[in-house]
Description:
CATH topology of the largest domain: Alpha-Beta Plaits
Shape: elongated
Structural class: alpha+beta
Low-confidence stretches: none
Bound molecules: uracil
Radius of gyration: 23 Å
Mean pLDDT: 93
Number of domains: 3
CATH superfamily of the largest domain: Pseudouridine synthase I, catalytic domain, N-terminal subdomain
CATH class of the largest domain: Alpha Beta
Amino acid sequence: MRINKYIASCGVASRRKAEELINSGRVLVNGKVVEELSLQIDEKNDEVQVDGKVISLSQKDVYIALYKPEGYITTVKDQFNRPSVLDLLTSIDERLYPVGRLDYETSGLLILTNDGDLTYKLTHPKHNIDKVYRAKIKGRPSEEEISRFEGGIHIEDYVTAKARLKVLKESRDKGYSVVDITIHEGRNRQVRKMCKAIGHPVLRLQRINMGKIGLKDLKPGEFRHLSEDEIKYLKDI
Ligand code: URA
């Protein structure tokens, strides 16, 4: 592995910062100052020091909240070569995985981490947390439609678990309303299918919360590292 990548993988600095450390003579390999940025490290046998401290590849866990813009896929790459959310994380050296998915057309909160245990736990049906979506939907649902939506609707081969739908705003002349929807599950295109099933298809969809984790001040395409409290909260779920 190249020296700057090695330093980044040890969680000491980003790759670019690692090059600065090397250029300023602060990195030693087997006791000698590194002079070549292209130096390859033998991870098992070489001893690397930064500022006099031996560094090692023990994995640093990274937890990120990303504001996914519309028009990005949540997986690595697809056959259409559409942009991936991972393209927005170029300053992060660790390989991160999304906790659940958002559709290509859906924007909003996506948690990413390299902590496989947490990803597994949060995506397991037993631990699924409440997810809140703000949706612009066609028309305005009646009270009867809302209680159908909330009580569980038959979609394809399953009945949805209890959910909530709150109308925030209605534009009668333009024929749409804005609603907050809370669901506990996370099946494929579930919100879109549920809204369609009550006759009010989604025109625009954004996830605003996953449990207590929110977007805070993020703008589309931006991300932030979760706070210690947020990480603890997710681990304790
Ligand atoms: N439900 C949907 O329909 N789409 C998403 O991206 C997430 C939930």
